[in-house]
Amino acid sequence: MKVVILAGGFGTRISEESQFKPKPMIEIGGKPILWHIMKWYSKFGHNEFIICCGYKQQVIKNYFANYYMYNSDMTFDFSANGKVTVHSDHT
């Protein structure tokens, strides 16, 4: 079953926190509110999400497009080898 999450509000009542990111991406305990909502649903077996984005949607898209990178300890080697090493996964 797919879960539809409405994540398009301006966040005007919490404008000091939502000046640079949309309300669903405000962090609680180091993770965005949206992540917590999705984690809660996944505990009940719902793992397919449709996120209806609006205001500053690119922040939401970038976070989930790069989720693995954001939630892992990584080392980037900028020498000729040019490798990326993932040390641990914090998901």
UniProtKB/TrEMBL annotation:
Pfam families in UniProt: NTP_transferase
InterPro entries per record: G1P_cyt_trans-like (IPR013446), NTP_transferase_dom (IPR005835), Nucleotide-diphossugar_trans (IPR029044)
Keywords on record: Transferase
Transmembrane segments: none
Nucleotidyl transferase domain mapped to chain residues: 2-81
GO molecular function: glucose-1-phosphate cytidylyltransferase activity
Ribosomal protein among keywords: no
Matches recorded under PANTHER family: GLUCOSE-1-PHOSPHATE CYTIDYLYLTRANSFERASE, GLUCOSE-1-PHOSPHATE CYTIDYLYLTRANSFERASE-RELATED
Name this protein carries in UniProt: MobA-like NTP transferase domain protein
Record organism: Phocaeicola vulgatus str. 3975 RP4
